[in-house]
Each structure stands twice: as C-alpha cells, then as structure tokens.
Give the backbone structure.
Amino acid sequence: ATERDAEFLMFGATGDLAKRKLYPSLYNLYQKGTLGTHFVLLGTSRAKLNDDEFRDVVKQSLVHAGEKADTKEAAEFLSRFYYVQHDVTDKAHYSVLRDRLNELDKKYKANGNRIFYLSMAPQFFGPVAGYIKTEGLQSTNGGFNRLVIEKPFGRDFESAKKLNDELSKSFDENQIFRIDHYLGKEMIQNIMALRFGNTVLESLWNNRYIDNIQVTLAEKLGVEERAGYYDNSGALRDMVQNHIMQIVSLLAMEQPVAFLDSDIRTEKVKALRSLRVYDVAEAATNFIRGQYGSYGDEPDYRHEDDVPRDSNTETFVAGKLLFDNYRWSGTPFYIRTGKKLAGKFTRIDVVFKKPLVDIFAFPQSGEKPLSANVLTIFVEPNAGFSLQLNAKNNEPGFQTEPVNLTYMIDQAHSDQTPEPYERLLHDVLKGDGTNFSSWSEVAYSWKFVDQIRRVWDLSEPDFPNYTPYSMGPASAHELLERDHREWVYHL
Ligand code: NAD
C-alpha cells in the first residue's frame, strides 16, 4: 500500500472548516497526483443529503476557493465523494458507516488505509474516537488507521488529559495527528531551515548573542460570529497554548538528531520542559491581559453579540517566557497576540545583543549608538525574512546606520505555496507527524498556561483597556520597558 491509497471518513462533512479548507486542499492534492486512483471520501454529518447533494456541497466549496469545478478532472474528483447522514452520538448507527467504509474500500482498493478526520465540535472528539474502535470502523487488514483532530485540545491540562486518555483507548500516539495549522505555514516550517541550515545563525542562537526573541500574532478583526466560542476561551487558550507555544518550541529547541518527526518531537518536548512554570508572583508580573474598547460605531468587546456584559475574557495577551536551560537562561521570549490590533500579521523578531563596545560612539559628537542586529521572520501576510545589520553610510564623516538584507517570497511563488491544510493533509497521508502537536507538547503547554489562568482568575481585570487598532494595552509596552527593551514592531 502506498500513501496514495487512502479512504477518508470525514466527520462534520458539511461544516465550515471542511468546506472552506479541507475540500479545496484535497482537490489540490488530487490535481498534483498526491491522492491517486484509490482515493475515496465518505462524508458524514447531521445534514440530510444524498451522495449527489453532498458532491454538490463539495463542488460549491471548490468554486468558492476559486477552482474551475466544471472540468473533467473535477468531475472525476467529485465522483469519489460519498455521504451518510449520521448522528455521532448514536452508537447503533456506526454499523452503517462501517459497512459503507468496507464497501468503498473494496471498490477503490484503498488497501485498508483509513484516515478519520474529526472536523467537528471538540465535545465529540472523545466519543467518536471511542466508537470508531468499539464499533469496528478501523481496518484490520494491515492498512493504516489515522485520526486527525482539530483544535481545541482541551481547555486546561485536566480536560486535555481526559481527552487524550479517551483517544488513547482507540489510537496510539503515532496514529493521532493533532492539527495546529500554524505548523503548516511556510515560514514556520522555515524556522528549522534557517536555524539548522545556517552556521551564521545557529552558532549565535543562544543567550550569549541573543538579547531577546519576540513573537507577535496580530489579528485585525474582532470576535465576529465566533463570540460564543471565543468568550469561553480567550486569547490565552485560543492562541498561546497551541500556536505560540509551538512556534516558541521551534525557536528554542536544540538541534534534532535527524530531520525526522520523532527526533524533532524529542527536542520540542525538551524545550517545553525547561520552560519555567511561573509561581503566583511571577505569573502576575510576567503576563498581562487586555480587552478591546469601543471604536466609533464599533462596540467594545462586552457589547458584541453573544458576549455577556460583564465578560472578563481577554482579547489580548502579552507575556514573558523564560527557559531555564543552558542555551537560554537570561534571554527572555516575549509573546503577544490579540484581536482588533493594528493589522493582521504574524512575525518573529530575534534581537541580537549589541557589540560589547561601541567604538563609533563619541559622546560629544552626538553620533547615534549602534542598533541591535535583528532577524525578522515574516510569517504572514507576506512570507520572508530580513536581517538588520549596521553599515557605514556614505555621508561625510563616519556614521553608521542600520540596513536590511531582505528575502521575501515573491507573489508568483507565494501563489504556488501550498495552503497549510494542503501540507498537513499530505503529511497525514505520509504518516509524518513533524507538523503536528504531540501529546507531551500539549501537556507541557497546558501546564504553563493553566498557571497564568489560575492567577488571572484571582482578580478582577480593569477592562476594557485598549483602543482597537492599536498594539494592545499600555501594560504590553511596560512589560518590555521594565526590562529596558521595546517591541521591535510598534506603532
Ligand atoms: P461547524 O459548526 O461549521 O460544523 C460542524 C459539523 O459537524 C457540521 O457538518 C455538522 O452537521 C456536524 N455535526 C454537529 N453535530 C453533529 C452530530 N451530533 N452528529 C453528526 N454531525 C454533527 O464547525 P467548523 O467550524 O467546521 O469546525 C470544525 C472543527 O474545526 C472544530 O473542532 C473547530 O474548533 C475546528 N476549527 C475550525 C476552524 C474554522 O475556521 N472553521 C478553524 C480552526 C479549527
């Protein structure tokens, strides 16, 4: 059996994520030949549809993604989609899914390779995974059985552990693919290439030469239609525990023995283990939170639809992370993320230490002191990186100024860059867990984040505390100012 021979069982097949991301990504893989003649997908959800109606749903999703869906190739792709209406809480009905899976497996010679994709609300992850096993949906003829699950993975360590214990009854850790779509992004995957492919970076990648590292995930939109979900979660759980912790672990980890998922996981887990879990006093000083106020006609967070008027949910968080290990002791990682900020972008700024002696600075001459070298990794919207160095300018006298060596992926190439979900689905087909979160990573992240949450829950925040389309509350600025630093990106 090759990776191309796979049968998908898509739970939540009529949902937003499946339509917006998963079907267009599968179509791209199909067009590139990654999914071969043995590909078949059985969709299931509560909606009452027959196969043809379901194919139409998928077709519309391709059209929506800008594909020409009237071609022979598209028709061929769509002919591989089948549908069964099913309530996932109804145990008895799993036999219908099982029989249909077996039939389609035979018809398409999928060799018993099964990918179970849970694109539905998290409360169903545990029970569905359980029924997949107990009701005999896994193949037993030597093919692979893989489970793909969406975020969020729990809402604290306890619930994540409970969920993981449930999943473990049906799937081994190496069969579970926990999606973190940031890990599918071009420049996040490039962190390892930049670090371990370049002596000029990796030899300086430690506390002797790096002053601090800053990670910013900024969103311009407010909560929009997802307020019900978001108000139960907040920025710390929704963004820090998963995406930011994953990015930070890639920045902080030691060099893996080989470029293999198991070796990479080992190093990420080691990094997260050395992240200092704060006590009450440290959590209170090293993390700050925010909630956006009103702006013109736009309501403040507490007046958004579906948000309680007294909500203390944070729409912004900034924090300082400390790794207690030889490489990083003394070099903080500052992180921030929030809604209704000055723009929609993700970037990483690695700030190097200034030369110990600035021989160009003559106090009486008014020369500007040297700037720090900064490596900025632009993750989105544009992908690339830039290294800020000091050079002499060509004016009379001798003055230095910062110049940038910049590499940006141009538009033509970025149009060809696969979408995160396309890469991640391809990885699932290959059985490569590099770009997914392992249970240990999830567990350490929650233990860190839980401590912040616990401390926050002890006191009433003074919300709202930031103006929309700024870079968050003043306390985010003060967090670095206290350490005699500033955010590289500021307004
Ligand atoms: P959705 O609400 O749009 O879709 C849910 C799907 O589940 C629908 O097909 C619905 O029919 C089905 N469903 C609900 N209850 C069911 C039941 N009892 N039995 C059978 N089917 C049932 O959700 P979504 O936005 O597509 O999200 C799916 C998952 O992806 C969630 O875990 C979410 O957190 C995650 N996620 C979504 C996005 C996104 O952009 N939409 C982004 C990241 C993660």
Notes: The longest strand covers residues 210-218. The chain has a mean pLDDT of 95.
